[in-house]
């Protein structure tokens, strides 16, 4: 399949630690699930080609950002020029949803003004219906574990091997299906209030991973074409450069990228992060569209 792209744009993935951001990127770019991921330090990078219904092919350059507060000032610098964003929380960890507003505010402050944002409830494969018997058992088990932990706090310190086994059991439990802590209704209500798209995903099974990026890309594409139409298709945009106020780059009719774009075809494979360049607008300012150099 041809790897040529029609449009080039930049996406970011943001959210709390341990919600599956890196797993989402790997599933998108490598079509596999990474069971054991280490915490992202700074940012990680990948790229992927999406084909829209009209046949246009969008190459998205995706930056997976660290969820740790320690790297917040660093990762914010990578928000600049992002036309699309995935705002990720875990369906089985309510605190990650409660902090979503902070991440949303950050994206709106530092990314493109017209950034298209998808709210993503990840780990759908682990989220049990709260009314199911399994979820009720999980809740009872959690209460029992809390009681056991409280009772053992005054007990003699366990041996090293016992402590290791406890950690292994806890990690194993974390990977098992458990009660959903964020309902679809409240997530959809938040998304509607903030004007976001809402999608529930599973990086493990691949459920809706490409769908989440595609829905954001469609919005970015629509906004880009609307901006071009509003400017009357002036000569500054007919050569394939980015429309003012947009963070998307269009190829020339002859197949060459517009001003400031990198030559060569796109790739759906993951790539290591390299330097970035910002394409120039006709007015001499930077569009923020991120391209590999």
TrEMBL record:
One of its GO terms (molecular function) is GTPase activity. It comes from the Eukaryota. Residues 130-187, 227-287 are annotated as: Disordered. InterPro entries: P-loop_NTPase, Rab_GTPases_membrane_traffic, Small_GTP-bd, Small_GTPase. Signal peptide: none annotated. Residues 140-163, 227-242, 264-275 have a biased composition (Low complexity). Belongs to the small GTPase superfamily. Rab family. This is Uncharacterized protein. It comes from Tilletia horrida. The lineage of its organism: Eukaryota, Fungi, Dikarya, Basidiomycota, Ustilaginomycotina.
């Amino acid at each position: 399949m041809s790897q040529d792209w029609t449009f080039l744009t930049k996406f970011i993935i943001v959210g709390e630690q341990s919600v599956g951001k890196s797993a989402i990127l790997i599933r998108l770019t490598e079509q596999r699930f990474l069971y054991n991921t280490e915490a992202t330090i700074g940012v990680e990078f990948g790229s992927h080609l999406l084909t829209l219904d009209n046949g246009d092919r969008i190459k998205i350059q995706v930056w997976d950002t660290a969820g740790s507060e320690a790297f917040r000032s660093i990762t914010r610098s990578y928000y600049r020029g992002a036309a699309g964003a995935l705002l990720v929380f875990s369906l089985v960890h309510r605190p990650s949803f409660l902090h979503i507003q902070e991440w949303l505010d950050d994206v709106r402050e530092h990314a493109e003004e017209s950034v298209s944002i998808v709210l993503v409830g990840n780990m759908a494969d682990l989220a049990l219906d709260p009314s199911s018997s399994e979820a009720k058992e999980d809740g009872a088990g959690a209460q029992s574990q809390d009681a056991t932990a409280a009772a053992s706090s005054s007990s003699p310190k366990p041996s090293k091997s016992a402590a290791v086994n406890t950690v292994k059991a806890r990690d194993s439990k974390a990977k098992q299906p458990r009660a959903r802590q964020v309902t679809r209704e409240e997530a959809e209500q938040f998304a509607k209030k903030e004007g976001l798209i809402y999608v529930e995903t599973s990086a493990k099974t691949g459920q809706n991973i490409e769908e989440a990026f595609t829905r954001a890309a469609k919005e970015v594409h629509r906004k880009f074409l609307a901006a071009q139409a509003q400017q009357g298709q002036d000569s500054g945009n007919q050569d394939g450069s980015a429309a003012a106020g947009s963070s998307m780059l269009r190829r020339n009719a002859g197949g060459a990228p517009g001003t400031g774009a990198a030559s060569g075809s796109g790739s759906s494979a993951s790539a290591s992060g390299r330097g970035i360049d910002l394409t120039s607008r006709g007015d001499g300012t930077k569009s923020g569209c991120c391209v590999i150099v």
